[in-house]
Amino acid sequence: MKRKSKIIIAILILISFVLAFMLIRNEMYGNNRTKNKNLSIANNYLEKHYPNEGFEISEVKYSSKSGNYEAICKIKGSKDRHFDIVVNKKGKILCDNYENINNLNNTSNRISREHKSFIKPYLDEISKNYSEKSGMSSRLIFYEDYIESFPELYNERKIKISSLEIDKEYDEKELSAKLGSLVVYIETEDSSIKNASDIILNIKNELDKEEISFQEIDFTMVDPLINSNKIEFTITKELICDDKEKLANIIEKRIELYESLF
Fold first, then answer.
1. pTM recorded for the entire structure
2. CA-based, 20 to 30 A from 131: which of 32, 49, 185, 211?
3. What ranges do the domains of the chain cover?
4. Using an 8 Å Cβ cutoff, are 150 and 254 in contact?
């Protein structure tokens, strides 16, 4: 009798684990039945609101963060013509973000990703000259981003997001020269202005060899042993000169400007 009770208890525990596993899995990935149902609902919504535009639903994803399903709508062969339809667990359409096509957010996000992929190998190579915890990256700053930033620090941008063209392939070096903003983080025990000027000049010269230009550098240098030994500044490319003494003086003024703003 005791042996039978133990078997029953073991089976109940096993069933509890299985049910718990299924519940956790559904919370993380959703369930296929609801996913297929919401695919049908999203298809009907797509046909009703965006007919004859050539969109197809490539997949339905479950967001564990929101608990909703996202139907990914794309036009074959297009990089920028895509949007999501959001459906909740009960099959109710919550929203879509079709406007990201027409307001060119998809296009600006796409060329920003392409820019980062393009310039990353060059910056990674330069970063090898410094400590492992140092790093460099780049971003594109458009006119709309510039007017919300500090004009004292950044060069004015001429290119607006609204002037971009859907699915157009842009020249990476041209974009970098007009919109590129480098972000440089250096960890070193020599957190002097002289060392900062040497690093800034080295970055510029290495990129010049590859005929890659940029608008400015956001620079941070930290002494890992003494965190208070930290300098931050933004310097535009036209201020970077080969005269290291002059460059050090310019950087000193840029540090003072940065500190006055922040």
1. 0.82
2. 211
3. 1-30, 31-102, 105-261
4. no
Quote the longest CA-to-CA distance of the chain.
Answer: 93
DSSP string spanning 197-210? Answer: HHHHHHHHHHHHHT
45 by Cβ neighbours in 10 Å (0-12 / 13-18 / 19+) ranks as middle
Q: In residues, how long is the chain?
A: 262
Distances (CA, A) of 163 to 143, 151, 245: 10, 21, 41
Please write down the long-range contacts of 25-28, taking CB distance under 8 Å and 24 or more positions apart: 27/64, 27/67, 28/62, 28/64
**SS3 assignment, position 140:** strand
Complete edge-to-edge strand list for the sheet that includes strand 93-96? 56-63, 68-74, 82-87, 93-96
What is d(CA 208, CA 213) in angstroms, rounded to the nearest whole number?
A: 7
Distance CA 197, CA 251 (A): 7
Which CATH code of 3.60.20.10, 3.10.450.630, 3.90.226.10, 3.40.50.720 fits the domain covering 31-102?
A: 3.10.450.630
